[in-house]
Each structure stands twice: as structure tokens, then as C-alpha cells.
Design goal:
It is a single chain. This protein has 427 residues and is of the alpha+beta class. The chain is built from twelve helices and twelve strands. It has three domains: 172 residues, BirA Bifunctional Protein, domain 2 (2-Layer Sandwich); 89 residues, no CATH class; 96 residues, no CATH class. The strands form four sheets. It has a five-stranded antiparallel β-sheet, with helices on both faces. It has a three-stranded antiparallel β-sheet with strand order 8-9-10, with helices on one face. A hairpin with a 2-residue loop joins β9 and β10. 23% of the residues are buried.
């Protein structure tokens, strides 16, 4: 079991995320009125915060909520129903309130205990879309029911300590050991993918990891040139700087690692001082051995030329997997054919605006229309979703952009187009 915690500033956004627009199962709703919709729960929390605004006027509370993510492994939560998840949530809350000391980088720090057991909070049960791992998300009010503030110093370390106590009590694996096992597995897969690349390519390296079930997110300085990247396994995210010995899998060292790895593979195959024979040498050697076996030695006066090497036939590349959909805007229907890799990029980047009558699918359709250069149709759909603005006249795909980079720009433009547009009347 692992646990993380942090303070958040946008309560409505996290409420929408935890409840997933009513698609998540609410496990615990504490100190809140019954039957409230997701935004109603946050509004009641906000109302409680406003009651004590005068008390904390000298030092306002900027981050008004605390969020936790608690994730047992699949084996640990096997066979659990809603009752088991309810009891597990309360077990975590009680252990969290008991924490009065944390260890940060070898130094012990005294902390003021929290009072989440007497605070407003709710917990939603999520299922990871790819791995299927169940985990809890909790949103807690910074002010308890008595008007006292829940201290958030070292809140992430408090969550880890509470998880350690539960792991020890239930006989579960230590999260640090699980993390070490995951890092070893990721490093082995990264090196295996690099070793199978005939030439270095960031896109092929990323695709190879994604084919093994990892989620790879990169930050780019230039197109196709990542500055940094992370790898997600289950619910855990690992930086490239944490992988391997000597940080050899960082973005800046990947190509050099590929060269060293292939030099080592060639050495194991051919020996340290032996270079692999060329195709002409292989052909001449085979003919000489055949003639020797048949006792048909060539005349010394006639020098035999090596046979011409047949030119290999070009291999037709496999067709790319595509996402297809027909989108109707007004009286016209637009056929959309998008590479699956670009579709996945847009799907992971589009955002639903807070308090807006939108869904992820609605916003994603705007992004797909932009990708296909249907700018007018995309603007029409975004306006119907409450957005504002328009696409520039010089908007379009650049010559040096690949599908994924173009999809990334379309998703960013879509988030701006679909952002609710505040209209005011002038007198």
C-alpha cells in the first residue's frame, strides 16, 4: 500500500476529478449533508471555511483543502467490497490523525496532529484505466468542525507514515521495497527496448515502452528532443533521473547509453578485436569452401571476382493504426481519421473546464476537428460548449511537426477555445 498527500487550491477542480462527474463510487461522506451532488459537497465545505474567515484574516488560508491518494496493491485489496473500502478509509484517517512526528532526510520533526476524523471530507473509489488497480482519493477541509486549522506541514510524509503503520499491522509489503522492485523492472525494460533499436530514436524508444504497458510523459525543448521524461507504472510515477546507475536513462544521456549498449552487444557477438565480415567477404568465403569440398580448385592465373550482391527488395511499412469517427456539426458531417498515437496524446491533454456543461468527449471532438484542419467546425462546437474566441487565420500545421507534436498543439488550443467565455452587457 502506498499513500501520498498534498494541499490543493482549486477545490471545484479536485471535486470534479474525485467524483469523475458522478462516475466514481463515493465510499465515505463525512460531516456533510446527505444527498448532495459533487459541487454541492464542495460548496458546503466552502461555506464552513467562510464562517472562520475573520478568525484567520491576518493569515488567510490560500490552499483550502487537502487531498490524499491511498492505493493498496491488487493482491492486498482482492475481494474487497464497499464495506471493506469504507473501513480501510477510516483506518487511514485515524492513523493519519495520530502522526505527531515525521522523519525528513534523516532529521525528526515534531508536527501538530490533525483532526480529520472531525472534519468535512469525502472519498471516491477510482479504477486505473489501464492496470485496473483500485485506489481511494480523499478531499478534506482545512478547517475542522471546531474551527481549528488542520496543519499541513509535511502532509506527504504524514500520509507515508500512516501507510507504513497499516502495512505493518496487516502484514503487507513495505512501499519502499515495492518501489525498488518497480524501478528494477522499469530499468530492465528500458535497457531491453534500447538494445532492440537498430538506430537511436526517441519516438521508437517511447513507443517500445508504451507497448509494454507504461505511460511515458515528456517535456520537450524542441520537437522530438525531450528535456525530461517520466514513466508511470500503475499509480506510481518515476523520473528518468531515478532509473539506472549513473542516471544513464535520463533524456540527455539516452543516445550515449544506446551507443554503449550496442558496442557491448557487438563485443559479445564478435569478440573484442574482431570486426564482423562484410557481405562480399562472406560470399567469397562460401564459394571457396564449396570449391575446396568438390576438389575443384580455381586456376591461379584467373582471379575470380566476387559475385554481385543482390539488392534487397524494399519492405512495405505496416499501416498505422488509426482512430475513425464521423462528427456532425450543423448540416455537415466530417469524417475524422487520426493516427492512434495522436489520438492518445489529445485524449490525455484535453481538459474539462470547471462548472461547465462539457464532457471529455465533447472537448476531444473539438481537438480532433482542429487536427483535421476543420477550424470553422471546431470553433462552432466550442461555442456551443460555452467557450469563446476563435482560431487565428495563420493557424495550421508546421512543416517540422510530427503527428504527436501537432496533436499536442491542437489539444492546447482546444482547452483555450472551450474555456467558458464570460459575457457582460454594457450600458
Amino acid at each position: 500500500m502506498t499513500a501520498v498527500g498534498d494541499t490543493v487550491q482549486s477545490g471545484p477542480a479536485m471535486t470534479n476529478y474525485i467524483t469523475k462527474n458522478f462516475r466514481a463510487d463515493l465510499v465515505v461522506v463525512h460531516n456533510l449533508s446527505e444527498g448532495l451532488p459533487p459541487m454541492g459537497m464542495w460548496n458546503e465545505m466552502k461555506l464552513h471555511l467562510d464562517r472562520f474567515r475573520t478568525k484567520y484574516a491576518k493569515k488567510p488560508i490560500n490552499k483550502q483543502a487537502i487531498i490524499f491518494e491511498v492505493s493498496p496493491s491488487t493482491e492486498e485489496s482482492k475481494g474487497w467490497g464497499m464495506d471493506e473500502w469504507h473501513d480501510f478509509c477510516w483506518e487511514f484517517i485515524r492513523e493519519l490523525d495520530k502522526v505527531d512526528e515525521v522523519n525528513n532526510k534523516g532529521r525528526k520533526h515534531k508536527v501538530k496532529p490533525t483532526n480529520f476524523a472531525n472534519s468535512q471530507f469525502f472519498a471516491g473509489l477510482h479504477r486505473d484505466s489501464k492496470s485496473g488497480i483500485l485506489h481511494l482519493h480523499l478531499l478534506c477541509n482545512r478547517i475542522d468542525m471546531l474551527g481549528n486549522i488542520n496543519d499541513a506541514h509535511f502532509i506527504g510524509l504524514r500520509a507515508v507514515k500512516a501507510a507504513d503503520v497499516i502495512n505493518l499491522r496487516r502484514g503487507w509489503k513495505d512501499p519502499m521495497k515495492i518501489r525498488e522492485e518497480h524501478i528494477k523492472q522499469i530499468v530492465d525494460d528500458c535497457m531491453d527496448v534500447l538494445g532492440k533499436l537498430p538506430e537511436y530514436s526517441w519516438l521508437r524508444y517511447k513507443s517500445g515502452l508504451q507497448s509494454r504497458g507504461y505511460e511515458v510523459e515528456a517535456r520537450y525543448g524542441k520537437p522530438f528532443c525531450p528535456v525530461a521524461y517520466t514513466i508511470k507504472l500503475g499509480n506510481s510515477v518515476y523520473k528518468a533521473s531515478e532509473l539506472g546507475v549513473g542516471r544513464k536513462l535520463m533524456a540527455s544521456k539516452l543516445e550515449q547509453t544506446w551507443k554503449q549498449l550496442h558496442a557491448r552487444l557487438d563485443e559479445d557477438k564478435y569478440g573484442l578485436f574482431y570486426s564482423p565480415p562484410s557481405a562480399e567477404e562472406k560470399s567469397y568465403t562460401n564459394r571457396s569452401q564449396k570449391a575446396e569440398n568438390n576438389h575443384d580448385y580455381p586456376a591461379k592465373s584467373k582471379e575470380q571476382k566476387p559475385e554481385a550482391i543482390p539488392t534487397p527488395m524494399p519492405v512495405k511499412p505496416a499501416p498505422k493504426e488509426e482512430y475513425r469517427e464521423s462528427i456532425t456539426v450543423g448540416d455537415r458531417t466530417y469524417d475524422v481519421n487520426i493516427p492512434m498515437s495522436a489520438y492518445e496524446v489529445m485524449k490525455g491533454m484535453v481538459e474539462v473546464a470547471d462548472n461547465a456543461a462539457q464532457t471529455v468527449d465533447d472537448v476531444l471532438r473539438v481537438s480532433m476537428l482542429l487536427f483535421m484542419n476543420y477550424a470553422d467546425a471546431a470553433t462552432t462546437v466550442s461555442e456551443s460548449l460555452g467557450g469563446g474566441g476563435s482560431v487565428e487565420s495563420n493557424w495550421g500545421r508546421r512543416k517540422d511537426e510530427d503527428d504527436e507534436w501537432w496533436a499536442r498543439r491542437c489539444a492546447q488550443k482546444t482547452n483555450w477555445l472551450c474555456k467558458p467565455f464570460r459575457r457582460t452587457m454594457k450600458r
